[in-house]
Design goal:
With 462 residues, the protein is mainly alpha-helical. The protein is built from 17 helices and 3 strands. It has a domain at 1-59. The longest helix is centred in the middle third of the chain and has 40 residues, at 251-290.
Length: 462
Amino acid sequence: MVKKLKEMNSYQLEIPFKIIYFIFAFFTYCNLTFMRPIMSVAVDFVLLFGCLVAIPRLIHWKSYLRTPGLFFAVAFLISFTISAIANVEYGYTDNFKGFIWMGLHFFTLFACDMDRSEKEYQKEFRVLSFFFLAVMLVMSFASLVQLICNYSAELNVADRLILQGLVWGRLWGVFTDPNYGSVFAVIAILFSAYYWGRTKKRWLHVVLGVNVLIQILYIAFSGSRTGLVTLFLCVFSYTFLIAVKRMHHKLSVNILLSLVLAAVLAFTTYGMAVGAKQIGRKTVEIYEEKGPSAEIILPDLVGERDEDIKKDISNRRFDLWKSSVEIFVENPLCGVSFYNLQPYALEEMPETYLVNNDHGRFNNMHNIIFNILSGQGILGMATFLAFMAYTLIFVFRRIFTVEGADYEYLIIMLCCMLASFLSSFFLTDVIYVNSPCSLIFWIFLGYIFHYLRRKELGLIAD
């Protein structure tokens, strides 16, 4: 029996497991499936496949243990556990579930087999990226159809308010939150740009071009400033990093030309998104001036959100971040544990903005730094910052030594990670959640570390 387990080809399970995990993540952020019975089925499948994938990993643990940065991930998980135990009086069920999910992120997504060929992980990347593209093409297109039909719905599902279509002047579409949907759209745009440059098939160029247009339109009508900021910075970063490597001039000229090209493309895509929303509003105004005889159902592209932002540019985030600091000051060493933020605030700090405001009770700070600060205190924050510093140093000391297609393979993953990380400064993402962005971040970080370490060891030919 032991011999059979040792000979088990765990690689055959990797792609199905990761696809199922992505399906579960998209279900969580799709308002057609969120809080529905199918979610329970998806959870069971993820956990089942997670256990199957974990068995051969445990048998060959030495190879996975050599994953660069895994020490920091383990240290962060230990910090999370300490915080959960120290605050068990405020709740433990959600923290236990959070521990399981975080363990899956670190040990079944991030950790890579350092003896496995990089070609195998590149194959995984192609499958996962095309799957992501296909899902986003369908979801964003369906959302735009709802916009055209002026569809709007506010549903109560399991005591949760679920919004669909065009609500409050924003296109939620089939996403549970237009902010998340817009960031997913940015990643889909990056994938499209990457494959556009790697294929000579005209039909695929057409599909990828249409997909870019659809994703930009979704970002435009989602009303998400997070999406716009992420779009600009990611397009700029991807264009610059690719261009500076392809140009054959002196380094100073390379950098200057690459900066100009990156700025032009970033401002162009940003302008397309902003312009599309303005054209939509202007079109509605023209039809409204014609009166009832226009015989057209006009979408409401102006909502209360615009007025709210004028009053508070952070849209309540500054108040939440202040609340995080208040909680941290009272619990500086290990915080109150992320999943106990609301229970702790209700019992110990009922006047803090997190649970005392005119909008409703929040359960997080909508920012990765402030979530960790109040959730895991100094221990968690120190570990997280050390992990980020290690990642930046490890990657940027090595990535520019890679040439050709492999370099572009690493850059597209790095820019998708950037999109995920940027969104985490305005949303709850990367850690503590099962979102497509968090999966993208941890899977791709593992792939990048795996490739660069094997190249450093001379296991990849130049």
